[in-house]
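Re: [help] complex structure
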Amino acid sequence: MGWRLVKRDTPLPGGQVRAFAVGLLLALVLGSILLLAAGHNPLSTYQRMLDASFGSLREISTTLDRAVPLGLAGLAVAVAGSMGLWNIGAEGQIIAGAIAAAWVARLAPDLNGFSLITLMLLASVVGGALLALGPALARAQLGVSEIITTLMLNEVAIRIVRYLVNGPWKDPLSFGFPAAPELPDQAALPDLYQRSNIGLLIAAVVIAVFGWLAARSRWGYELRLAGSSERAAQYVGISLKSKVLTVLVLSGAFAGLAGGILLTGSSDRLVEGVGGGFGYAGIIVAALALMRPSGVAAVAVAFGAVQVGGLAIETQGVPAAIADILQGLILFGALTAAVFGNYRLVRGSADADTTETADPVDESAGTESIGTDLPGEIAGGPA
Amino acid sequence: MSEQQLIGLLIAVIEFGTLLYLAALGELIAEKAGVLNLGVEGMMAFGGMAGFWFGIETGSPWLGLVMAAVAGGGLALIHAIVSVVMGADQVVSGLALTILGLAMSAFLGTSLVTLTPSSKFTEQPLGPLSDIPILGDTLFSMSLVSWLAVFLGVATWFILERTRIGLSLRAVGENAATADSAGIPVVRARLIAVVIGGALAGISGAYLTMLVAPGWSEGTTAGRGWIAVALVIFGAWRPGRLLVGALLFGGLIALEPRLQTVFDVDFDVRLLSMLPYLLTVAVLIVLSIRSRNRPSAAPAAIGQIWRREER
Amino acid sequence: MLAVELENIWKRFPGVVANAGASLTVKAGSVHAVLGENGAGKTTLMNVLAGVYQPDKGTVRLHGEQQRFTKPADAIAAGVGMVHQEFRLVPTFTVAENVVLGAAPMRISKADLERQVGELAERFGLATDPAQEIWQLSMGERQRVEILKALWREARVLILDEPTAVLTPSEAEELGRITATMAEDGRSIIFISHKLDEVTAFCDEATVLRGGTTVASSLDVADLNAAMLAELMVGQATAVSQRRERANTPGEVALTARDITVRDLHGRNVVDGVSVQIRSGEIVGLAGVAGNGQRPLADALAGLTTSTGTIKMGIHDLTKATPNDRHRRGLSYVPEDRIGVGLAPRLSVTDNAIMRAYRLLARGPIIDREGAADFADELVEQFNVKVARMDQPIAGLSGGNLQRLLVGREVDGQPTVLIAAQPTRGLDVQGVAAIQRVLLEQAETGVGILLISEDLDELLALSDRLLVMHEGHIVGEFDPDLSTRADVGVAMTGAGVA
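Output below.
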């Protein structure tokens, strides 16, 4: 007699917020065990993380700054995801965006700040979009799974930037450290408040606008329709090929913009690690937001806080990796919680003996619903 | 190129080939059962850390290897439970596993970074065979782990193609409902396949930290887990072609530092390292064009969630 | 000797009680029919016997011994084999591999297996090539592989779930011969069907299910007649399909399709030079055994699949038009796959209701939310779709409600032509009546309808003219008033061309 999952008649209330809360709780508990095992005090560590991310306006601004690339990468993944596509390549597209922006700065270092930054950000959008174009074309024209192609291009992008900063773009003054030369001073995004810069505004506007469009526009409706069923979308005359193409390229553009903002906002030069893992974290952000573009902002801020907290505790001898561990555990916890929102665990086989525990048939209401069609007897069924 | 340089190159090809083959073989087993596990990079790092650590603690690289298998398999079990039993999306769960595995190995391995690798695998000359010129210093002197990898590859092929277990496992990966109605325990088969896959990724990691690049540091896996994922596609889900692919991709990695010094090629070698990924994309495209009029080479149930009473 | 005894089986799914105290007894060495409407719980009951579902309540006995199956493997071990309606075969495996799957010798030699499977097939007269891969086989051949699977496991009880649905009449006869051979061999065959002629031809006894319970058990087929069975199957509800009064004067030509040819992935012409004309106000019935090109023809007319030939509606040439343009010109389509083509499963009732109208409900790029909600409310109200909430995903709705929503949406705004593919399949009696009523009303108001159905009685009752399709061709045209089931049935085999 094993355990098995049985679908609930009505899902538990609270939805994704509950799932996220459970995931966070689970992550904190498991994280404590790890911290204890490594000889650290979990409570003071968590306290320190919280202080560092939300302790004051200054800390909050740091958290928000960190949330910018997470939110844009999350938006990139979610826009593709709402059509049922996986852009695993946000990491590479961030890098491509940063490379393109850096290239503009190399070509036109003497432009004034506004023009230079605008051009750099535009270039980053194009760069990200270009890296996504290949997988988008392969998927739209040939039906090649975008999961692996986008994933592979991450590694390609990492190697391109490595090549650039070690080779042709290497700063001769960097004492062997692989990095491109410093960007011109006027290429830095203006500050907004304390640690956050204009990039926060740009990201907020982009996420808000596309979140709204995804929820309310014809375009967003067509995305959701195609995401729910490609053939239903075809049936009402939506061209899947062009949708797949535009959505994946747009997705790449968002991630590219994240790269542009990272370069002009948080960094003074192009380095190998410019992607910073934001692309992969963005996938988790989007998954936790259930692929709803409108939901990524909140999750991005939460993850920004965890990451900022992680960096802060490193100064006290606790490895910053705990932040990544927490992110992973939050996702696993939330996935599990989401499953239990729709299913319950039942012991053994549901025969006469276990009818009580296995939620007995309500005989009075029983026959009411008979006669509704059983999918097993409708053509199609599970493939 | 001198004989010395040729031998150096061949040894490197064998080393990187072994490393990639072990991890890719694990991923192949999981995918044959219908489970995509994008956590290879994480499992490899975690296994590498655990193996290195335990190898030093016990003084035996082989015990370290066993520990690495346990660590990789244990991490894979999380993915298996979340995606197979709970039915969460395999892509998300696998990527989260990579993040978790990399972070866990960084966290637990903090104190290992400074340790000298006192426990290592070594060359194993095969008696008189090792006297053969060139081959004797390379193929017939390679570490026992490489022989283990070859053995595991043959065993995997044999089990998949020539036994009931393999037929059942492939059926699970092609169509879970069909396998289930034939009385095959789908969930159990997938759990076992994913855990074995994780164990092999862990072993691969231990081979990395105890032979290819002895020592532990964050980022030591350097994207090789992703190459393993790519290799499975490149090898069209066949253990034999996988070996060819592993040697080819391993060869590219081995060539990288030698192109300029050994071959005097005026070409930035860093660009060469992106070839495996681009080749994989090319193979994917060819495969999908070829499968237009016939079923694809990929196990059909990859990524699909299965529950018996779903309706 | 009783081979199978199912007693008081209950099985509930969220929102549906599929079996409410169903029972069944089957004698050893007999072919036993299980009859019932779609939704009567036949498949669920058989899945309980086959260990796929675990009953909430009730007992299962085989050859007198009580069984408690928790998985299909248990049922297989006890000697129960089931051939599901959707075949459970691995397309990339060979016939031999599929047959032995889960019951293979530990060490596999391909040649040995193929020889053994070949011998088994020969013994029961099931012609197959053990070395061929499944994806290359016809439906009839695949079914033989399924039966071989059960025989390989030495099943004493073999369940066939609507086995003839995918077969040509001659293949069905062949199947009847095979089941008789197996029964003589002492095996018990449970034959699920809702076609009376098959039951009387192939079976010894019949059990009738209705609404999840057994309403008549183990009747001798010799004593059965159609009226009796129909009443048992549908109960006191109104009998199916009143014959309609036909319009005397057909209207103008609404749609002309000429020489339509559709090619499948393997390069075969699944629709081969078909020409159809539909006048406004008439219902053109299209009959045929499943898989003879009806579905691709419908898809081609609606623009969902590429085809050659010409399609015209009035003065408009729609040959190259997108599905959306065709709809704008007044062509509506109720596709065979309700969920997945006609409706999007994860979207809400409202989102599904506006699938055709969302472009009109948009102000610029933005969809007018209130307009959409009003539109959906009206549709749901007008066509009596029962929904708990408008924002719930439609996957939770019953088949009848789904179909009312879909048909209602397609006839909204008065189309010129409506293509309805299997619009009543799988619905309960009220559901069928509701959909048929809508179709008749639409024809009354001048809509030209192409009605594709596998239910001959429905076609004979509703159509003004009846076309028969076989292997991609229209092989006959009938006047429903002057034709019998038998006439049309013969044409469906491709044998007699009228």
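The interface with chain C takes residues 161-168, 170-171, 174-175, 177-185, 292-295, 300, 308-309, 311 of chain B (CB under 8 Å).
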